Amino acid sequence: MRHNLLSILALTLAVACTSQKQPQPFSVIPMPNDVTLSEGSFNLAGQDFYAEAALDQASHKAIAGFWDQLYKVSGKKSTLSTEDKGQKVRFIANPNLGAEEYALNVNDNGVTVEASAFGGFFYGIQTLKQMLPAEIYGNKKVHADWVLPYVSILDAPRFDYRGIHLDPCRHFWSIEETKRYIDIAATYKLNRLHWHLTEDQGWRMEIKKYPKLTEVGAWRSGTCIGKDFDSSDGIRYGGFYTQDEMREIVAYAAERNITVIPEIDLPGHMVAALAAYPELGCTGGPYEVWTRWGVADDVLCVGKEETFTFLQDVLTEMMDIFPSEYIHIGGDECPKTRWQECPLCQARIKELGLKGHGDITAEQELQCYVTARIQKFLNEHGRKIIGWDEILEGDLAEGATVMSWRGTQGGIEAAKRGFDVIMTPNSHMYIDYYQSQERDKEPLCIGGLVTVPKLYSYEPYEGMAPGTEDHILGVQANLWTEYITSPEFLEYMLLPRLCALSEVQWCNADRKDYNRFDASLDHTFRMLDVMGYTYAKHVRGIIGLPGHEQPARSEEELAKYLEENPIGW
Ligand code: ACM
Ligand code: ZN
What we know:
The chain has helices at about 1-20, 55-75, 120-130, 175-185, 210-215, 245-255, 270-275, 305-320, 335-340, 345-350, 360-380, 410-415, 425-430, 450-455, 485-495, 495-505, 515-530, 555-565; strands at about 35-45, 50, 80, 90-95, 100-105, 110-115, 145-155, 160-165, 190-195, 200, 200-205, 220, 235-240, 260-265, 325-330, 385-390, 400-405, 420-425, 470-475, 540-545, 550. The protein is of the alpha/beta class.
């Protein structure tokens, strides 16, 4: 009897303890820049919301979306109103905060989110969601404690430009997958999608004036198998986005505080366009949409005036679809072999009086001429250019922004010369690179090695000349897709490296802490599970795509493996 009574007492105590609603450990990524936690918690389920009437439409929509989601998962009805009735959850305009800044307070009085603009409200909501159980990201009612810890947060990003790149050319990603990509980027407070829409292997953007770009240029006859570039699987492959679809992506991204920056890569990486319009090449073709990877010798013929007419026509339609201040014009990997032999390109060199200087050849100067001419055209239409760091080779007109990809040197040099810079060094920011040295357990990738801790360790100001740091607009990771053949594989490469990226972009240097970040990933993995994303688990000692997962080797085993299987780059 005595024994029984004690057991009942213990059980009652246990139930009482577990029914005490507890907030989950604070594991927000990216870590807000100023956080003070205190004793106490607030149960959000069923609480009425107040959103000040003066807030803009986008903010009201984001608040309503969060309110609706909370009802869906908690099953507890509440009201949302622009009338102040002393509600406990309050979204209030505060003009003293920056555009992406927010103040978030949870205390005895309830929850208050303050911001001056949509970006701040959107990010306040992202932080609130990450403070709740991961099921907030789901669609069905679940039993969970919708409890927030008492906290005071004042948060703003370190960098204005927080980008992620996507290559839909080497492999094509549907509108739905592209939206998933945007969703998860927005969750981690990124605000730019660099959409690489043209390539040798496929032109992906509908241009009404040049229908063959997508009728012909969007399709290749096959794809090389593995790293045998001369092989082909013989399977016709391709796809493109209509202008309506691209507008849909622009609007979808904007609702998540993301600006889409489209890229037309010129004058190189143009084989797909040449296959459609061979008269734009130096030799006149015929050309075929490339079935292999690498850098093609065939590039646009810039001795012909019609090439510039073509580019300006394409850019005019692009500007109509994409409201972004920046248009990315590529500029990388443009061999000069055709221009050296083309009478028209050589005539243009002569006409312009280009002679080369130092290491810079006349043909390189010709590329500078192309960049300057396109830049002038875009500037006249109120837009600015971004180009890969090759655009620094030779003269570059004021107002260009340089994307440093061949390491950090291009960015450091550009800033010294007074240009704005976006840092995407392949050493840390190429997330098409392998995630582990155990390549036998990985799906085939392009090469390299960018682990989560390596990406996390990147410090954008390192190596900068003192006083030039302000030229760094921000940081971006690039996801090229030569070897990435499925949405699951794409997500496996993206996640959780995207989360590490978000802390490089958002957190002040003194807020970064890899151990704290790593511990927070447990919650992120639960969120990703609820949302149905595929993600890599290297940080938990597991390697491989779903269905092929294997434990990582011990340090000793790895050393032996690497000795027997030395890896190149
Ligand atoms: C690049 O990776 N070719 C910019
Ligand atoms: Zn030419």
